[in-house]
Structures are given as structure tokens and as C-alpha cells.
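Protocol step 4 of 6: structure prediction from sequence.
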Amino acid sequence: MLTTYGPQKIAALLGLPPNTVVVWIRRYDDWPEPDSVTEHTREVTRGWLPGRLPEWRAYAEKRAARAVQYGKGPDRVKKTRAPAADRGLFPKTGKTEREIADELYGQIRRT
């Protein structure tokens, strides 16, 4: 009996979240064809031979490069807003936002 790997085992071997390969199979037509397909009553089980690991790695690298190209994936640069003081909304006082908020709250309480 041959050992085959399912999508979640492949994802684990590639160091990806468990459902990543399942999503790729559903979303893209270019994922490598399975070596075995077993149909059950309501589900289909696909299996790939372990020797195809280099093929999966190449596919994962291609997907990662494409994700970065479109501003997604782990290498993306997150766009964050500068603090309010840096945007000129408040004068730079050297205080944290929490300290300013506490000070304002104290002023409100005294009135």
C-alpha cells in the first residue's frame, strides 16, 4: 500500500497554515494533480505521493512571490498611520497619548 499525503499534511511539510493548500486547490487550476482520488459518499479524498515535495515547494514559492507582488503575504509592508502628533494634529509635548488623555480627563473632572 502506497502512502499518500493529503492537503493538510502537505501544508504542514511546507510550513503553511493547515487550510492553505485546500484553498489553493479550490481557487487555482495549476496546483499539481493528485496521484490518487478516492470518492466517498459525500466527499472526495485526494492524495499525493511524498516524492512530489519539490514540486509543492516550487508551487508555494510561486504563490508567495505572487502575493508579495500584489502587496499581500508575510513580506508586505503594513500601512500604518503616524501618531497624531506627527501628523500635526496635536503639538509635540513628549507625552504619550495616555498621559495627554489622563491630563484632559483631570481637567474635565475639575470643572
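Step 5 (inspection) to follow. Residues 53-69 form the longest helix (17 residues).
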